[in-house]
Amino acid sequence: NVVTTPLSLSISAVPDEYLPSGKDGAYWRRMLTEMQMVLHGCAVNKDREERGLMPVNSFWLWGTGLTPVCPEPSVAAVWGGGVSIEAAARYAGCKFSDLPAGPEMILDTMKIDDVVIIVLSDLLDVATKRDFVDWQDTLARVANGWLVPIIRTASISTHVTIDLGTRYRFVYDTISRLRFWRKERDFSYLLRSPST
Questions:
Q1: Which parts of 67-189 fold into alpha helices (H)?
Q2: pLDDT in tens, 39-88
Q3: What is the C-alpha to C-alpha distance for residues 77 and 73, in angstroms, rounded to an integer?
Q4: How would residue 195 be classed by pLDDT, with cut points 50, 70 and 90?
Q5: 142 — alpha (psi -120 to 50), left (phi > 0) or beta?
Q6: How confident is the model at residue 31, as a pLDDT?
Q7: How many whole angstroms separate alpha carbon 78 and alpha carbon 92?
Q8: Global confidence as pTM
Q9: Rg of the Cα trace of the chain?
Q10: How far is CA 75 from the centre of its chain?
Q11: Residue 70 falls in which region: left (phi positive, over 0), alpha (psi -120 to 50) or beta
């Protein structure tokens, strides 16, 4: 009887708003506090600090319930995302590959009607630093290096969903191409400072 939140949804917000909640939420919040106290005096952390590394000072609890039974995979391949995404992809029976330097290799190996997941965690990584200028630079690099080439080479039947991990999601599909009255926009509007 606890409600938890994926770390990716809470990373750029105030973490306290996403701590365990529900009937048993208070119990798990107390457990988190206990874990922090144990970690504070842990020998491993003292060793990390002596080596100039950041200490491990908390856990993020997420996930409840039973492991789901996976249906036949509808995704041809998953690219990038690290060990947790790799584990999920393999559990679901999907082919997993490390993210290449650019989208060309992925586009070259795709067949018509393939569903492919590309995990670009760059923006999520910089969101944790709360550095808006770094986030702008990273978004520009992701947009020019990944999003624009993918959309430019998309075929008529291609459906592209781009989740930036920051509450922004873009969908580019057959319907999008039929909206000829819409003014074409690039991704630069996301690069404006929060005050504009």
A1: 82-91, 104-109, 122-127, 132-142, 148-153, 174-178
A2: 888 899 889 899 998 888 888 888 766 777 877 878 888 888 888 888 88
A3: 10
A4: very low
A5: alpha
A6: 92
A7: 11
A8: 0.61
A9: 20
A10: 17
A11: beta
Residues in contact with 104: Cβ distance below 8 Å, sequence separation at least 6, in sequence order? 149
Residue 55: phi and psi, rounded to 5, are: -75, 155
Q: Which residues pair with 116 in a beta bridge?
A: 77
How is residue 24 annotated by DSSP?
Answer: T
Q: Tell me if 100 sits within 8 A of 62, measured CB to CB.
A: no
DSSP category for residue 13: S
| Collapsed DSSP state (helix, strand, coil) of residue 15 | helix
Could you tell me if 29 and 4 are in contact, meaning their C-beta atoms sit under 8 angstroms apart?
no
Q: Which two tokens stand for residue 29?
A: 């919040």
Question: Does residue 150 contact residue 103 with C-beta atoms inside 8 Å?
Answer: yes
Phi, then psi, of 157 in degrees rounded to 5: -90, 0
**Tens of pLDDT, residues 149-174:** 887 776 655 666 666 555 566 666 66
